[in-house]
UniProtKB/TrEMBL annotation, chain A:
GO terms for cellular component: respiratory chain complex I. Keywords: Ubiquinone. This is NADH:ubiquinone oxidoreductase subunit NDUFA12. It comes from Teichococcus aestuarii. Residues 81-118 are annotated as: Disordered.
Automatic annotation (TrEMBL), chain B:
One of its GO terms (cellular component) is membrane. It is an enzyme of class 7 (translocase). Its EC number is 7.1.1.-. This is NADH-quinone oxidoreductase. Binds 1 [2Fe-2S] cluster per subunit.
Amino acid sequence: MSFLQRLTTGLTASKIGTDRFGNTYYESRKTWLGYGRKRRFVLYAGEPDPTTVPSEWHCWLHHVTDAPLSEQKRYPWQREHQRNLTGTAQAYRPPGHDYSGARRAPTAGDYEAWTPGG
Amino acid sequence: MAKVTIDGIEVEVPNGATVLQACEAAGKEIPRFCYHERLSVAGNCRMCLVEVEKAPKPVASCAYPVADGMKVFTDSALVRNARRNVMEFLLINHPLDCPICDQGGECDLQDQATAYGGQGGRYREQKRAVKDKYLGPLVKTIMTRCIQCTRCVRFATEVAGVPELGATGRGEDMQIGTYVEKALTTELSGNLIDICPVGALTSRPYAFVSRPWELRKTDSVDVLDAVGAAIRVDTRGPEVLRILPRINEEVNEEWMADRGRFSFDGLKRRRLDRPWIRVEGKLKPASWQEAFAVVAERLKGIPGQRLGAVAGDLVDAESAFALRELMVGLGSANLDCRQDGAAIDVSRRDHYLFNSGIAGIDEADALLLIGTNPRKEAPVLNARIRKRWSSGALKVASIGPAGLDLTYKAEHLGEGPDALATLRDGGHAFAEVLKGAKRPMIVLGRAAVARPDGAAILAAAWALAESVGALTPEWHGFNMLHLFGGQVGALDAGFVPGEGGLDLAGMLGGGVDALWLLGADGFEPGLIPPGTFVIYQGHHGDRAAARADVILPGAAYTEKDGTYVNTEGRVQRGRMALHPPGEAREDWRIIRAAGAALDVSLAFDTLDALRARMAAANPVFGMVDGRIAEGCHDTAGPRLAEGAAPEATSFTLPITDYWQADAISRASETMAECSRIYNDATPKLAAE
């Protein structure tokens, strides 16, 4: 965060909290003109990437809840938040993709060709 | 004739016709489940109720004979009410699983419930549930859906001739089953699926595969036996999903044999989908250009009379004719389409046809089977024989292996050709039956002449036919029963040794340096002398492909427009339902392209031009779907060399395993499973 950003953020907004990935969440001190409510925003821990915001904070950020949800309360069916991996080595590739074995599911029109061995 | 008035329309129907038939003659639709034109009348579904004037109650029209002056109402308030109530009763125990039922969209109950049913059921109690029965690898049962119309029971008993199905229990507890759990031992089991009006009997390979409205339907003709049944090939995208029979009264009525119906999954296995050429002893994938280059390079150095060609059992007449033109253009007369070595005399067409016609069986009154088991060789034709036999007007005898189960009673006269001579000399009582018959039929199996003394047997059978008076200008009683759909077409295309040409035995005996196999898998490829240059053109890598030096991938019968001639000489057209896989092409195109590579000018560039040329060479090809039914005007028998006489050896049957008889069914997993189950010596008992 640059000095100017830190200065303006400190003057106009108050820090609400930090999520488990290190993203910091702020709320403006004043109601914004024409917006009708206080502005909520996030300063990312690393590269700016909106998909790193976990659902608890996403809820708060979009004014769904007044206060951020607890990050401690977990249900057994909840999976850990994962950011969008598109463009990285861990990106999802369909089963027929060369990088994931190149073995697609059988489909219409598939046939077994004869080869001299078999 | 009886005059009947149906809803004010006066029709005349024969005495003894049923009210339902009279209504159909008047163009009135009568809903029905148990009634089927080709089965006996059961009258147990009660859906066909109509009102007859002066009758106290609605009557079941399928089982009610007409009387002169009868007045019938098919759309009165009484009739509508009766049908609605019958439908409500039928639906009491019918599950409401149409969305997951394979019959959905082509279900009689669904359609008729929409047309004749009420608004909804009033039944609130528990529905009946029935345990599913095992009927073999082809027919899947969901017996809860059964409405006890007993069509399947009557079909199995009357048409298929295997009284293995029946009903146990009464009323609500009535169940259709095989008493002792076993696979139905019939080659016509697929027809059970067609005649079942609901989804109780459905196709096992087609289970949960598709809906009828998703399919593209192509009318074609079955080539896996020589009957040439009319079929409909149902495809979705690039695959065949099912094959159904079409109605053709002259040939298959509405039945179809299991091998033709269920072997289509073989069209997706072991396919030749690219050209291969042998390089340093190993087959290597190649392009069409490379393959033709090799063919041209090798064949150009060989003189015409050292070239040979053999056509297989499933070839279309076009490709056989085209290959013959190519071979003639190359100067070769070594052609043969008789892979089994059958001594067929092609000098006259009636020497190798089923001359009485398949429909002619309905007129026959005596029938002699020689060296053939039509149940395995042509199940639909066998059902026709059985139908005639059941009417009591036909006496059947057989010469060949003893103990055949033909589904009808046949007197066994002997195992070998000596029985023919005995019969001709009147040494057996059946000779009198044949002589006394107005329409006697002699059915000679193709395999009976596929032996060294075949020509003598052919002549002996012809002579027998002549001596019993089967060869008259009105009736031709000499019949040859072929095995596969491409055999007669190749004979008609003239794919036999020309002047001075070698037959298959001569070619395999070292008479040729290069051999073109057109789908020829019917003989042991090991018999081809080493060093012979072999071109295999076909659709399946079955027996001969591995021996080939060049493989040219062709199209199977569902993948090309082709002409096929059935055993009675009926020229029929099969139509392309889908494209051949990969690089494979239609066979006549391959031959045309090979002609260009070999600098042989072939006088056809299009299929129409080829067909016109075929019709010019042999006029029968110009008469599609037709057949000249004529008697025998010249009783001169087939040519026979001096001193040739039948040997004493017994006849053997060509098809030992019905489910694995051709290249397509040998590649089919469904057929392999059938073969496993039906050839298992120990009968399957109910699961312990």
